[in-house]
Amino acid sequence: MFDLGAEKKMKYEQGNEGISFGQAPMSSPPDGELDTTEVLNIAKDDVLSWPQLVRRTSEHSYPLPVLSQMEHTVRPFVLKSLEVNNAIIDIFNDKLGLRKGKLMEMHLANELSGCEARILRNSATLSTMKLAIGSHTDFGSLSILHNRQGGLQVLPPGSETWQYVKPIPYHSICNVGDALSILSGGILRSNLHRVLPPPSSQANSERWSLVFFSRPSNTTILRALVDDSPVIAEALDKKDVDSKKMFDTGATAQEWCERRVRNRRFANNTQGLDNWKASRGTESVDLASFRSTTVKS
Ligand SMILES: O=C(O)CCC(=O)C(=O)O
Ligand SMILES: [Fe+2]
């Protein structure tokens, strides 16, 4: 799939419109270097409507290994991921003081959304510092990540030191993304992370990972649910005027994702810092941290 050759891969390219599904060359603002990881995104909407496609055209759908495994592998993976995702969303819903089912109403599987499964491959490399995936927050609600090799790092809030997240066998890693952070008035945090080539004994090996990203339905407006929960209203109340603005984006979930995807695309990343700024999510760290290579294991 990733070995198809550049020309054939173009057929499955995600396109320039900020829509994420398909094969995606991403770069790492602010320096605009191409991330070394290759990714293929499969839309939840296409998986659930299969054999019909609603997000990709039949001419530019997905590589053959995806299509031939749709019934036996891709669909069960997406259904199980949605089940796990929904259970976690419901727990957060109650902890945030929202009425039962409020968050789920924004994540209905049969409504069009940016939810997607992602397969990632980073070729073996001798350079231990070349970014496999540049620093970013995830765009949506929850990301459920399955990886066996190291390389994932997080930058804890207020810190300039990246820390490795060690994969634990039979466990997955769950990240909160921007959408849930905004809806919760910042009570849930969308963490800043990046990927380096695997460290120590795994260095020089190819790195594969698999993620399911859940995102609110396309039409969901991304703003803190202050009218639905006193807990969220109180959290937002404590923020200063500038931070408050971040929690009333005026954007739909679709617009939010499209903006972020478009400005992280290698092909679009020609404006240096302007692209970098336009690609940002809910993080509020300075530029120095994005360039920092200080690592604590
Ligand atoms: O491959 C990983 O460990 C992380 C992938 C990731 O952060 C992403 O695709 O957004
Ligand atoms: Fe990520």
TrEMBL record:
Keyword Nucleotide-binding assigned: no
GO MF annotation, one: oxidoreductase activity
PANTHER family: 2-OXOGLUTARATE (2OG) AND FE(II)-DEPENDENT OXYGENASE SUPERFAMILY PROTEIN-RELATED (PTHR47990)
Naturally occurring in which organism (per UniProt): Gymnopilus junonius
Listed InterPro entries: IPNS-like_FE2OG_OXY, IPNS-like_sf, Iron_ascorbate_oxido_reductase, Oxoglu/Fe-dep_dioxygenase_dom
Keywords, ordered alphabetically: Iron, Metal-binding, Oxidoreductase
Domain Fe2OG dioxygenase: start-end pairs: 111-216
Bilayer-crossing regions: none
Matching SUPFAM superfamilies: Clavaminate synthase-like
The keyword Phosphoprotein is annotated on this UniProt entry: no
Family classification: Belongs to the iron/ascorbate-dependent oxidoreductase family.
Species classification: Eukaryota, Fungi, Dikarya, Basidiomycota, Agaricomycotina
Protein's UniProt name: Fe2OG dioxygenase domain-containing protein
